[in-house]
Design brief:
The complex is a heterodimer of chains A (about 110) and B (about 120). With about 110 residues, chain A is an all-beta fold. Chain A is about 0% helix and about 55% strand. In chain A, the strands form two sheets. In chain A, strands 2, 4, 5, 9, 10 and 11 form a six-stranded mixed β-sheet that branches. In chain A, strands 1-3-8-7-6 form a five-stranded antiparallel β-sheet, with no helix packed on it. Chain A starts with a strand and ends with a strand. Chain B has about 120 residues and is mainly β. Helix content of chain B is about 0%, strand content about 50%. In chain B, the strands form two sheets. In chain B, strands 2, 4, 5, 6, 9, 10 and 11 form a seven-stranded mixed β-sheet that branches. In chain B, strands 1-3-8-7 form a four-stranded antiparallel β-sheet, with no helix packed on it. The termini of chain B are far apart. Classes of the chains: A mainly beta (about 110), B mainly beta (about 120). At the A-B interface, strand 4, strand 5, strand 9 and strand 10 of A face strand 4, strand 5 and strand 10 of B.
Chain lengths: ~110, ~120
């Protein structure tokens, strides 16, 4: 079963913040975040393992709430280059595969 | 370092024709995956492989076959193409890590855009 991402789409002005959520009905081992620009391949952003950790690089960070089986991706002071579709991928137990959400389309405007 | 290379990049087929998509990786990764991406549906796993000579079904395996005869290559075959298989196909690979899975990033190829008329 696919994880549920929200919102489905968001439009921001440059400099604004955004939060993208990813929820699963299954107990998760890890959550992966990827960004895909139009016509390109998905690019890895970060992985969060169970344990409620928070990670980040530059102005993009994420958290993983193990109790809620939910991860959130935080984009602060958004830049035009942040535009794209963000996907979460979830792994359960020692599964060798990810199940991806349907994506959140983010558009940053001037 | 080429990473993950998919061939061809574009292809148009007629219903009933067969073809093979090739994925090659030069990172010595154990795990390889084939996904299809359709508008509004994200990435859906077709088949995957956890090592040379092994394959397993994903979420949407019907109508596709795969082979992993060499560690670096993962082939996706369509025996009798149908219009419903029109999609963008992505290959990905990642390191294995013993019994601990799920904490290695996947590296994606640039995709194959396949249209079936």
């Amino acid at each position: 079963q696919q994880p549920v991402q929200s919102p489905q789409a968001v439009i921001l002005r440059e400099g604004e913040d955004a939060v993208i959520n990813c929820s699963s009905s299954k107990a998760l081992y890890s959550v992966h975040w990827y960004r895909q620009k139009h016509g390109e391949a998905p690019v890895f952003l970060m992985i969060l393992l169970k344990g409620g950790e928070q990670k980040g690089h530059d102005k993009i960070s994420a958290s993983f709430n193990e109790k809620k089986q939910q991860s959130s991706l935080y984009l602060t002071a958004s830049q035009l280059s942040y535009s794209g579709t963000y996907f979460c991928g979830t792994a359960t137990g020692t599964a060798s595969k990810l199940t991806f959400g349907t994506g959140t389309r983010l558009q940053v405007t001037l | 370092n080429a990473g993950v290379t998919q061939t061809p990049k574009f292809r148009v087929l007629k219903t009933g024709q067969s073809m093979t998509l090739l994925c090659a990786q030069d990172m010595n990764h154990e795990y390889m995956y084939w996904y299809r991406q359709d508008p509004g549906m994200g990435l859906r796993l077709i088949h995957y492989s956890v090592g040379e000579g092994t394959t397993a079904k994903g979420e949407v395996p019907d109508g596709y076959n795969v082979s992993r005869l060499k560690k670096q290559n993962f082939l996706l075959g369509l025996e009798s193409a149908a219009p419903s298989q029109t999609s963008v196909y992505f290959c990905a690979s990642r390191r294995g890590q013993g019994s601990i899975s799920g904490n290695q990033p996947q590296h994606f190829g640039d995709g194959t855009r396949l249209s079936i008329l």
